[in-house]
Amino acid sequence: MKLKTLVLLFVFIVSCSSDAANYIEELETLGINEFSSEENAERYGNRICSKVEKGEITYGGNKEGLAIQYFCEEYLEDFEILTIEEIFIKRLTENDLINDYAAPRQAITVANKKCDSIDDGEDPKGNLAEKIGVEIFCPEYLDAFQILQVINVDGTFTLNSSYSQYSGYSIGGTDTNCYGTGGYGDIGPSMNIVLRNSQGITMYAGIVTSNIRTKPSQCTFEFTFFGVVEGEDVYVFEVANRGEISYSFEDLVYGIGAKFLRNYSLDELPQFFN
Question: What is the pLDDT of residues 28-44, one digit of tens each?
Answer without folding.
Answer: 999 999 999 999 999 99
